[in-house]
C-alpha cells in the first residue's frame, strides 16, 4: 500500500472575472498524518479543499486520491473522504442522531447503530443524541459536524477551521479527539488560523498565500531552516554606535541607543551561540548592559515572515 493518500499536481482554479484562487498547487499528503494548511483569508485554502471534495471544479491540474484519478473515479473516491466545513450545515430542528445516521446513508453505507453510537460517544455527544441541534452550544454543533463527517468512516478527513468560534478549553478537547482519530488510521488535513493549533497537532505544515504554496515541511524542519533568535541588550546610558568588535553580528541600536538588538541564527542553535559571544565581547570591553532578554521565533513568526516574503517557494 502506498504511503501517499493524496497527490495534487499543477492545480489551477480561475473564477469568472479572472480571479485566480489556485495557481499551480503541488501537494502530497502521506497516509496517517495530520497536515495543517495555514494561510490568510482568501489564500485558497477552502478552494483547495473544495476541489478535492468535489464542490469546486478545477480549471487545470490533476488530483489523485487513494491512487485514483479523481476526475475519472469520483464516486468511488468520494466515499472515503470526509469533510467538516467552516459553516454549520444541517437541519437545526432535527435530532443529533438522525442527522448523523442520515449522513452515513448519504454515502451509501448500510445502517449501523453501533457505529453511530461509537462516533457520538467519542465526541461526547451520546447524551445529546435525542436533542434538537438548535438547542446545542456552538461547540457542540461543531462536534455534530465532525460526527456527520465520521459517520461513513472516511480514510481522508478534511477539517476546515474545525475550532473556529469555540473556547480554548473546548478547542484543546477537540485537539485530543482529532489526535485520537489519527491513532485509528485516519489521515487528517486541517486549515486553521490558530498557529498554536498547527504547532500542537500537525506532523507537517504548509503555508498558502494568493493561491500558491509557499512552503511545505515538517514542523521541526521549518523551525530549523527558518527559526531565528532575537536578543535585546539594554543600557542605562545610550551607546553612540555599535562597537567595531561586534561588526560581524546582525545588530542594530534602538530606543535612542539604549537597546542593542540582535536578530539572527538559523534554528540550529547558532543564534544562541552568537548572543553568548556578543555578551562576552561586551564584558571584555567593559561595556555594561543592565538587562538581556532572548526569545526564539515561533511558527507564527515564521508564518508572518513567509507572507511578507512571496519569493520563498516550496
TrEMBL record:
One Pfam family per UniProt: ABC_tran
PROSITE patterns from the UniProt entry: ABC_TRANSPORTER_1 (PS00211), ABC_TRANSPORTER_2 (PS50893)
SMART domains: AAA (SM00382)
CDD domains: ABC_DR_subfamily_A
Keywords, sorted A to Z: ATP-binding, Nucleotide-binding, Transport
GO molecular function: ATP binding; ATP hydrolysis activity
Domain ABC transporter: 6-235
UniProt-listed Gene3D superfamilies: P-loop containing nucleotide triphosphate hydrolases (3.40.50.300)
Highest taxon listed in the record's lineage: Bacteria
Protein name, entry field: ABC transporter ATP-binding protein
Amino acid at each position: 500500500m502506498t504511503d501517499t493518500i493524496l497527490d495534487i499536481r499543477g492545480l489551477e482554479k480561475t473564477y469568472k472575472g479572472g480571479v485566480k484562487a489556485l495557481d499551480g498547487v503541488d501537494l502530497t499528503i502521506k497516509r496517517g498524518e495530520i497536515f495543517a494548511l495555514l494561510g490568510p483569508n482568501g489564500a485558497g485554502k477552502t478552494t483547495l479543499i473544495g476541489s478535492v471534495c468535489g464542490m469546486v471544479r478545477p480549471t487545470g491540474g490533476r488530483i489523485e486520491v487513494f491512487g485514483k484519478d479523481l476526475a475519472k473515479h469520483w464516486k468511488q473516491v468520494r466515499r472515503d473522504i470526509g469533510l467538516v466545513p467552516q459553516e454549520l450545515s444541517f437541519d437545526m430542528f432535527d435530532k443529533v442522531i438522525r442527522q448523523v445516521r442520515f449522513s452515513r446513508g448519504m454515502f451509501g453505507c448500510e445502517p449501523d447503530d453501533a457505529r453511530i453510537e461509537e462516533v457520538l460517544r467519542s465526541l461526547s455527544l451520546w447524551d445529546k443524541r435525542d436533542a434538537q441541534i438548535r438547542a446545542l452550544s456552538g461547540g457542540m454543533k461543531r462536534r455534530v459536524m465532525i460526527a456527520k463527517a465520521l459517520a461513513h468512516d472516511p480514510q481522508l478527513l478534511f477539517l476546515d477551521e474545525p475550532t473556529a468560534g469555540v473556547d480554548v478549553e473546548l478547542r484543546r478537547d477537540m485537539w485530543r479527539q482529532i489526535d485520537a482519530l489519527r491513532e485509528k488510521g485516519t489521515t487528517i488535513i486541517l486549515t486553521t488560523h490558530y498557529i498554536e493549533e498547527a504547532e500542537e497537532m500537525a506532523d507537517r505544515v504548509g503555508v498558502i498565500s494568493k493561491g500558491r504554496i509557499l512552503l511545505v515541511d515538517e514542523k521541526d524542519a521549518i523551525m530549523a531552516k527558518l527559526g531565528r533568535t532575537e536578543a535585546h541588550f539594554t543600557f542605562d546610558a545610550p551607546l553612540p554606535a555599535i562597537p567595531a568588535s561586534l561588526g560581524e553580528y546582525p545588530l542594530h541600536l534602538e530606543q535612542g541607543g539604549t537597546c542593542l538588538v540582535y536578530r539572527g541564527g538559523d534554528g540550529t542553535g547558532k543564534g544562541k551561540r552568537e548572543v553568548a559571544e556578543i555578551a562576552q565581547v561586551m564584558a571584555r570591553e567593559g561595556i555594561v548592559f543592565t538587562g538581556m532578554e532572548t526569545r526564539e521565533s515561533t511558527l507564527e513568526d515564521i508564518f508572518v515572515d513567509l507572507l511578507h516574503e512571496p519569493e520563498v517557494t516550496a
